[in-house]
């Protein structure tokens, strides 16, 4: 069975800040950690439960990393009309990259909804 997710007018996501943070753990093959701050805004008249997310990170070397999972930073936000859920997390990259994504949820009536996360770029500092 295929689930069709709909855009719910008024349900939006914003990327509030992106910053390089060399204090975060990173593997040798992806040594550049970037912290991002994201908010999900429910400007719709419906209550929405967020249950998952998907990120697509593409780098300038042509590699693509897809990250999917349940919840958002271990939580399953319930957003009443007018509420916002904000969080931060991080991606580790090996080269200049851009990230896009989506959050998946349902309305109180069980209608599947999706909200797109705006694209953002990550530019590691030049290595000497």
Can you characterise this structure?
It is built from no helices and nine strands. It has 128 residues and is mostly beta strands. Strands 1, 4, 5, 6, 8 and 9 form a six-stranded mixed sheet that branches. The model has no long low-confidence stretch (mean pLDDT 95).
Any descriptors?
128 residues, mainly beta, Immunoglobulin-like, six-stranded mixed β-sheet, 9 strands, 0% helix, 59% strand
User: Which sequence of SSEs, written as H and E, runs from N to C?
Assistant: EEEEEEEEE
User: How widely separated are the two ends?
Assistant: 52 Å
Please report the number of helical segments: 0
Which residues form runs of ≥5 with pLDDT under 50?
A: none
Which bin fits the share of residues in helices?
Answer: under 10%
CATH homology group: ApaG domain
Q: Which helices and strands, and how do they pair?
A:
Layout: E1 6-7, E2 11-20, E3 32-42, E4 48-59, E5 64-70, E6 78-79, E7 84-93, E8 97-107, E9 112-122
At a glance:
The protein is mostly beta strands.
């Amino acid at each position: 069975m295929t689930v069709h997710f709909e855009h719910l007018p008024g349900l939006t996501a914003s990327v509030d800040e992106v910053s390089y943070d060399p204090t975060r753990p990173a593997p040798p093959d992806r040594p550049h950690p970037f912290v991002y701050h994201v908010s999900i805004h429910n400007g719709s008249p419906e209550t929405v439960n967020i249950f998952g997310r998907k990120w697509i990170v593409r780098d300038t070397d042509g590699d693509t990393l897809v990250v999917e999972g349940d919840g958002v930073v271990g939580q399953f936000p319930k957003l009443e009309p007018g509420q916002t859920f904000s969080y931060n997390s991080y991606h580790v990259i090996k080269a200049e990259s851009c990230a896009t994504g989506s959050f998946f949820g349902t309305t109180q009536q069980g209608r599947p909804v999706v909200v797109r996360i705006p694209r953002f770029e990550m530019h590691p500092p030049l290595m000497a």
